[in-house]
Amino acid sequence: MEKTWNNKAWFLVLPVVVLVAFSAVIPLMTVVNYSVQDTFGNNEFFWAGTDWFSEMLQSDRFWDALFRNLIFSFTVLAIQIPLGIFIALNMPKHGIGVPVCLVLMALPLLIPWNVVGTIWQVFGRVDIGFLGHYLRVLGVDYNYTQDPIDAWATVIIMDVWHWTSLVVLLCYAGLVSIPDAYYQAAKIDGASRWSVFRYIQLPKMKRVLLIAVLLRFMDSFMIYTEPFVVTGGGPGNSTTFLSIDLVKMAIGQFDLGPAAAMSIIYFLIILLLSWIFYTVMTSHDAQS
Amino acid sequence: MARITLDHIRHAYGPKPSSEKDYALKEVHHEWEHGGAYALLGPSGCGKTTLLNIISGLLTPSEGKILFDGADVTGRSTEERNIAQVFQFPVIYDTMTVYQNLAFPLRNRKVPEADVDSRVREILEMIDLSDWANRKARGLTADQKQKISLGRGLVRKDVNAILFDEPLTVIDPHMKWVLRSQLKRLHRQFGFTMVYVTHDQTEALTFADKVVVMYEGEIVQIGTPVELFERPRHTFVGYFIGSPGMNFLPAKLAGATVTVGRHKIPLERAPTVAANAKVEFGIRPEFVRLGREGFPIQVLKVEDVGRQKIVRTNFEGHLLTAIVSEDAEIPAEPHVTFKQSAINIYADSWRAETEG
User: Torsion angle, CA of B77/B79/B84/B89, rounded to 10 degrees?
Assistant: First the structure.
């Protein structure tokens, strides 16, 4: 049979192509453009090749920020994922408790990020903040503006407060999709509470957990607003994560070339780590 | 395996049942023999799953006691009762292999690993899944998964009973026959007490020694397939069992003669019926004979269902269905006769006993 060639269908994808071009490709290419050139203003550019990249990869400042960011991401993942699962397992399945819990859980997610930062900034202040003041009263020497450990603790607890709900809601959605017959069968088979979790609940939550881990990793790795509002990256550089450092470099110092190179490296790291997470977590599916 | 005694059991899902209507399960008082195969048959919402869950211990009855071999187990949990249950949808542990699935109930009970192995291999043989032992259970077909669910029940030697809750619902029609006959064979071989819930009469009749017919929360009849066919105790059993169901015609009774419309039909024996009861004349379509003699009828419709013809007729203003063989002629002026021994008389929907 004669095959009909009709390329008009390409016009149908044109809107998407235009949208993606303006939202992703063109901005990204602008950054690429900056990263390989040097400028002294007046819109004059000089070819710099890979200079900015090698400078970036050799700078301690970059590696320190990356290291802090990785520690931060893995810490919040290590807290939020188990805690989210635990809360989801203990949420009510029937009755009036369900909507109440869901709304309470969703609340932190609805608050704008800089407001979250402001809340915790005030909450933790030693002079007027509830947390800061009463920790002092209890004899804890707490001051997030001066002590790096206190600053880290504040930022991590804030992130846990802000984002654990997301993990809870995703896990809960996975849990309620398990038919009762599974629990009844497990009872009949004499399964322990742990076995029920390990062999019924966890496998059924696996897909949503994968999404939760990916989202939480990407978000925490790109975190900017909340620590910027609370600690501004301090004390010293102790809570300066990659994005805070990037903004300082690009807008504070106006070093466009190095900042662009850093952006690209930053982007590639997120892409790579997300890909690794995804591959590792889905490899079990492929095995069977 | 055990004898199961249901001692005056009633169940209501609401907190305070005040009238008979509040009970999802009306009084059940019966004893099920050790090693029997029972089918609970009835339409959706008749209480059969409620009764099953009471036996398995997933539900505690509002009233009454349940005994296994004479021991009261009403307050005991499902695992303490030592029963197995196969659900409507196959329940398997996705992440485990077929072997691990079968070993799971034994390992949970801390059975020595050597015994687990020999027992699991035995069961794999029984349910024809030996070649699949090391495959992940997730990739199997619905009927294989259902066999695993069954296997997890069989693997424990000491189970008191195996309960089935419409286990063939999600199985392909051609596999239903295969699974059912395998189940039947296993039952004959090992003689466990089986309770099988279904709304499919073919399944119930081919599978069970005794069929328990339920209707609106009540057991209306417990009997062998033949008893249900020949002597339905309740009009519901009459039309639920059989395809098409039994004919019921309003009638009047005088001694050993029943009157339908203008016609008097003699009975073998006189039934005992209360004075004001609503009397019905019941006859299975299989025992309605079409011919040139007897009572005149009008043929409304003939349905050819292959080896037989189903003839819908008008008899004294009521619908009367007859089954005739494929090659039978339907005469121009059709008449019917009824096989006398197959006539049942019903008073207020319950079958009237005959004297003597």
Answer: 80
